[in-house]
Amino acid sequence: MAPDLLSQEHEVGNAAGASEDRSRGGLWARVSRIERVPIPALAALALIVIVFGLANSTFLTLANMQALADQSAIPVVLAVGMTFVILMGSIDLSVEGVVAATSMVSALLVINDRTHHHLGLWAVLISVAVGAGIGAVAGLSVTRLRIPSFLVTIGTWQIGIGIAQVLFGGQPPVVRDRELLSWALKTWLGMPRLAFVALAVVLLGLWVQHMTRFGRYAYVIGGGEDIARLSGIKVARFRTLAFIVAGACSGLAGVMATSRSGQGAVANGNGYLFLTIAGVVIGGTLLTGGRGGVLHSVVGVLIMVSITNGMILVGISPYVQQSVQGAIVVLAVTATLWRLRERLRVVK
Amino acid sequence: MTTANTPTAENAGKAAHAHHKAGEGRVNAVKALASRLHQHGVAPALVLGVIVGILALYDNSFLASDSIQSLLEQSAILGLLALGQGFVVMTGRIDLSNAVLASFTAVLVAKLLPSQGPLAIGLVLGLSLAIGLLQGLVHVFAQVPSFIVTLGTLGVWTGLSLTTSKASTILVMQHYGAVSWIYARPYGIPLSFVLVLVLTLLLMSGMRWLRWGRRMRAVGLNERAAAFSGIRTSRVVLSAFALSALLSGIAGVFQIAELQSASADSSDALLLPAIASVVVGGTAIAGGVGGVGRTLLGAIIITVASVGFDIVGIPSSYQPIFYGLFVIVVITVTVDRTRVTSVA
Amino acid sequence: MNDIAFSVRGASKTFGGVQALEDVSIDVRRREVIGLIGENGAGKSTLLKILSGIHQPDFGTVLLHGEPVKFRSVAHAMRMGVAMVFQEQSLLPNISVAENIYLGNEGTAVKHGFYRWPLLRRRAAEKLDAIGSQVSPRTRTEQLSFAKRQMVEVAKALATGESSHHEPVILLDEPTSVLEAAEIKRLFDVIRELKKRASVVFVSHRMEEVLTICDRAYVMRDGRCVAECDPASVDVNELYRLMVGRDLTDGYFAEDQQIPHTGEVRLQVSQLTGPGFADISFDLHAGEVLAVVGVQDSGRETLARALVGAASVTSGSVTLDGRVVRFRSPADAVRAGFGYIPGERKTDGALMGLTVEENLTLAHPEQVMRGPVLSRSLEQQKVADWVDKLKIKTPSGSTPLGSLSGGNQQKVVLAKWLVDPGLKVLILDTPTRGLDVGAKADVYALVRQLARAGIAVLLLADSLEEGIAMSHRIVTMRDGRISAEFECAPGARPERTAVLERMV
Q1: What are the boundaries of the signal sequence (chain C) (predicted)?
Q2: Could you tell me how many helices (H) and strands (E) chain A has, helices first?
């Protein structure tokens, strides 16, 4: 046993030795290769917080921290679901539609001024189920009908908007359910309760990512679908599941949006698609799949929310936000894909 | 959306080839005839005929010249966006920004017309062309998938049109005459549709008679083989994106002519109907197969279908659900499964 | 110890009318290392694909421990205890070593969908120990060197193979092709470890390796198993002779049509270096056929691509008719008078969805244009000419290329370059691969004709015979460099074994 141990140590020492290290680039390259923790994204977040904190004294106040937590809660939940889809190399563009639909569903099922339902917590579960159902339609269309995910989810985006419009029927349902409204209005430990909902989702997401077959196979499928298939993994099943998970997260986000705005509205989902995708991408979860994770996406969303919040504090028109987020998506993806450029490489 | 030469894909190709060889003969002849008819856009024409027939039976005023005129007029803007999208799809790409770009250019035209007069149109069209080239360049040079580039620019142009319009509707008072003629109906002929038709014919003959058209199809069918044949594939792709954006710009001008006003999101909702027009016209989402004229037919079908909703009495709030399901179903029916290697 | 673990009896396989494997029988005994050697296209990889469950044989049976089996897939074969170590590695870079080793085969280490990490890592460590590798199961796979990843790959094959009831059979597909000498030595140690608990099939084109590590070896040629030998007592020259085989019938390569080239230097390549090849220098004369031969990964495909601007060049120069050229894309090369036929006809060469006419005029549409527009009549007339001249069998010019036979497709792909009267250099990457014998002879005759017309031809030959018989001169490539050059006049062709020795 002893010689074995010795040689193992020798091996470890060798791996960390200078000869191998040199071929792997400098300190930054090595640090950014630690993938469990999104170090570059965390550094960027810290930088942004410092810059805005210096530029505007209100940025680092408790009130603004509460506002940041409140603004981040929904996109963070969306990003957790989206992460699994993107890890597998697909994309889900339907978040705004699903949020619209489930926001309307949840508003109509709790105590409100249009219907006589008062399902309470059941309304939350039903909304999550509706989201998961729309996700299932998308997932099955991608895996069974073999349509690219970005097209399918543009379709389910519109389906979600349509469901919301049909339910809307000309008059927004105003929520009177105290419990649901308290999510957004009341605080725990000085932070809005919605933020704790988001925190719970993040922790659950991290656990799923690390401990479950679904979570691990998200990396496997994104890293090499052919290898996954050769290894006998049922890729279609897991990919469908990813869309269902993303839909469920969007469903929960819809309930949260209802809680925040106090009513069901078609527009409750507006603006979240770019915030989420930009967040996921900038956090270091690659759109090509297999890289990144829940924590990366969450940090990315926090970066995006801080930028948005800071821009408003500095007095930049809120209308420009979408432009900035759109540009960030393109720039971030370009930066991450840049090294893959090659002559005659076909990218569509 | 990267095509990789995976061993499995190769084997599948071999298997398909062997299979193909086994069933040659009569089947081929029938297939050849079917594909020839298909190439000439018979399928969408048939679909259009059926829908029009049903609607005419349902409501006999549907075939009155008045309603046909307004129908063709309504299809003009969608037709322009669909034509542009059709070229991009022909190369196997997608342009998610074209509808939003039409909104943006409409806002710009509305802003510039009072001060610049007719020159505003030229300026805005020039800008759209430049925007298309920019989007195409980022895509081909940085090798970023087109749906991501145009998703990002979708956000960029949305933000810019909100900023430019300050999120309110801009009414065009001065120099409206510079564009209003587009929606004239001399002798009952909707000029707007005639313009789109002329544009379609021009583009059709370009596809048929210029090397560019053939290269476009070659790039869509097999980009690597096209490149090895000496085609500058990135230029071809670039031209599709430039054309798409230019047509979005024209759509923006048309929108000012039609509504005499612009708001930040007036054409945004046309993205999915435009994609639906392209696929219902029979252009394969994988690229290479399709045509210009049939895309216009597709746009007319979509317009008729949405008018049909009103006639049949379905509220317009159901329309997004319809478009969403419709696109999924039509792509499912038309997609060529032998050419799709991996779907993510 | 002599019982047979795994065997193939009378296996045959054809692809699109081409016989890839013909009546091959081999036996693998328990705890034995079997070598498979042969040239490119001898049938090694087809046999391996049948053994590993990627292909099923058209005829013949596969026997595992005496029982006939039909592998439905690689995963199925693995469950039955036959595991392949792929040449292009099948490990995922972005997950841990332990996950890779048990991918899709986690067993009780994943219970009800939840991972039991300590168990998974312990089992992985056991497998790694078994082959004497000290890689940590926690390491993310991409952090390992290629050689260490290959050890993990072997551990994975062992793990999947051992999940069956029998001792596993491990297939190694050209495992040494990108390893350094020291790494190869370690791999051999691993194979010796493996031998204590498994049977091994080792495929290589490097003769000395097979002789070193194998207990027994099969020599393959032209899809057949031509000999079985004992490495301890075999004569190396005899082995080379077995690999290259017999003489082909006269006339097949149209050798009587070869005339000495008198032309001046058309293409001068000097010290060309790029990813995959280095320090390549040669002259190519007008009217000359220069054959480049080499095994897989010899770098010749990349070199061909670099010459037409499809792959990048880091240093060195290419001179065409005395002027230095630098192509940034194939389009540049085509405009300078180059033609290129890629190795993968189906994916890179032919546009199956376009018609014969459209394919033929795709590279040089200017030949069928009047002013700025394409002339249909001119096109039809030109294409009809070429269809006639090359005896392309097609119902009409407007038939989609995909419905023609492989040989006729290839003729169209060739004709695409011939329509250009300014064609100077033609680079052919294995233009006869996958064609039947008749179509091959047609292509050979055509290449002769082109050479006589003064075109400089660079031929990446599909087989050694083809390279020797078709060319004026032959260069061998090994590991991205030119290893030898042979003059190749009719009647004074170099010995095949001599050429082969410089390739492998």
Answers
A1: none
A2: 16, 2
